Amino acid sequence: MPEDKRRNPVLASLSVLVMAALYGLPFLQIAPNRLVSGQPLYFSSIIPGPAWMLLVVLVALAAAAMFKPCAAWLGSALAVAAVSMPSLLWLAANQASVSLQGELSIARVSFGSAFWVVLVLLGFIVSSALQQLRATQLQAAAVCAALLLALGGLLASGACQDLSLMKEYVNRADDFAQTVARHVQIVLLALACTLAIGLPLGWAAHTHAKAGRALLPMLNIIQTIPSIALFGLLMAPLALLAASVPALGRAGISGVGLAPAVIALTLYGLLPVVRGTLAGLQQVPSAMVQAARALGLTDVQTLVHVELPLALPVLLGGIRTAAVSCVGLAAVTALIGAGGLGSILFEGLFANAQDVVLLGVLPIIALGVLVDALFNMLMGLARRRVRPS
Amino acid sequence: MMKNRFIWVALLLAALVVLLPHSAPLFTYAFPQLERPVYTQEPFAWLLWQHVLLVGVSSLFSVVVGSAIGVWVTRPSGGDFKPLLDSVLAMSQAFPPVAVLALAVPVVGFGELPALLALGLYGLLPVVQGTVNGLQGVPAAQRQAALSLGLTPRQCLRYIDLPLALPVWLSGVRTSVIINIGTAAIASTVGAKTLGSPIIIGLSGFNTAYVLQGAMLVALLAVTVDMAFEKLAQHVAWQH
User: Fold this and answer.
1) A253 vs chain B: nearest CA distance in angstroms?
2) What is the pLDDT of residue A5?
3) Which of A38, A127, A368, B184 sits in a 20 to 30 Å window from B215, CA-based?
4) Which pLDDT score is estimated for B49?
5) The CATH homologous superfamily of the domain defined by B2-32+39-239
6) CATH code for A173-386?
7) What is the ipTM metric for this complex?
8) Which residues of chain A does B222 touch, with a Cβ-Cβ cutoff of 8 Å?
9) Could you tell me where the DSSP H helices lie in chain B?
10) What is the pLDDT of residue B3?
11) From B84, B202, B219, residue closest to A128, measured CB to CB
12) Which of B93, B194, B230 is the best substitution to test chain A (most A C-beta atoms within 10 A)?
């Protein structure tokens, strides 16, 4: 096969892009305060002279890996890219401290576009190198965890205190943890309601095929309605309900806040969960169910001991979709006063403060990635139980 | 049945746009404490048009660029980039649309532009996914039959792969457009004038009537467009 001789240009093209972004886009922005847009500071002016030599190493390694894709070259390219990621953050933090010397304390140093683009490209290089090295999932997870620990540790160490992002964090350090906890609370409440309603609905759709055919289009319509519109449509009826039944109002049900947020997020989660339950139960071989019946198992026993364990991997996939999208949608609930990380995001957006937006967005993305990874792990475990190797 | 439902929903949307400006007595009755019960800053018809325009332009970009990327990574020349694309698509699920919108503002400023940028970029993902899934779902036997009949790879793409991938591609485009309609509503927080504007203004001014008017129109628009795609999908499936 000529396939083996074909050259994989992915690493090399990514490395060239890294170089172009680092020299073509601003690395940092320096502003006299948080409201005005800053002056760009380029990478070449931070590290004058032969700094490009560092990048040449990366490009050379990537090129070498393209012509001779052996573990040594690929591994070196991986190592250089991985070490570059925290170094980039350290460089930005260090430069922030240097630039702010003698400036007023309200002066701000924020990340420029080159920082983000290069960070993402380096992440791509790491992930592609891992794929070409045919790393196992465990190895990839270890590299990922090490990178996140290095970046997180650097942020937590105080070395980054002069970056605008960390200044905004310090400004609201007192209630930041509470805001994150509120976000998690909204997600967990909505997810619990989704599962409590969705799992029985999915089972009902499986046993009564006719009901299932009527149910899914209905859930699909709910899914179609944009989040902000669904919140709005729930506001008026809930406010009316709280006004006419004072007991409900005292229990915290009202047109704004937690109640409409959790109801709307629950409704959104129903479609993936019901679909996942249905698909999971449908792919259970009917021979298995018949065998269980022949052994004298009751309906409930068949469901618990045969159908559910076999449906679990697919079912967990549906719950994962619901959970990951719930983390993101919960950000929008801040608009109806439910709180959570979205409140930081929109506060920054309305005040035109980029780093406040980031302070809201970064934890949302981190939470989403975390939930995704968690469910991937659970699905792996469930699959191993179904088909022990 | 399906056909009728689409027409009824579309008619309802049109009727709301025409009748809402004259519905002050109704909303005064429902919300007696409000001084201005009907949103009048901009006409609803204009907001609807702006919304459709924003979604249309950004979706056009998403569809053209997304389909091109999807076709490229399934060809031998771009195949090496496929694993990278897969991990990007998997990672992007953790990125909510509202985050993309918020991050677009520092790059291009307030107004229609960040909305266009965010919608266009975010809408790419489902289109790429749909194109790749559709093309990969084409049975290998059909491609081999076409190639052995003497079709060039380009002809094979044009006459075999693309028509067979159409239904799955269409469902990707549908997801993209529906997400964009919702994100365009939230885009009124970054200064774009859309059907989300009455909702955002209503929420910040405690005017539930505004919120309700905007929400009804956005929801109906999304459902109408989704039903139009449903009809299109049935048409395509029937042709297959």
Assistant:
1) 16
2) 52
3) A368
4) 95
5) MetI-like (1.10.3720.10)
6) 1.10.3720.10
7) 0.86
8) 224-226, 229
9) 2-19, 24-30, 44-74, 82-92, 97-108, 112-136, 140-148, 153-156, 162-186, 196-204, 208-239
10) 61
11) B84
12) B93
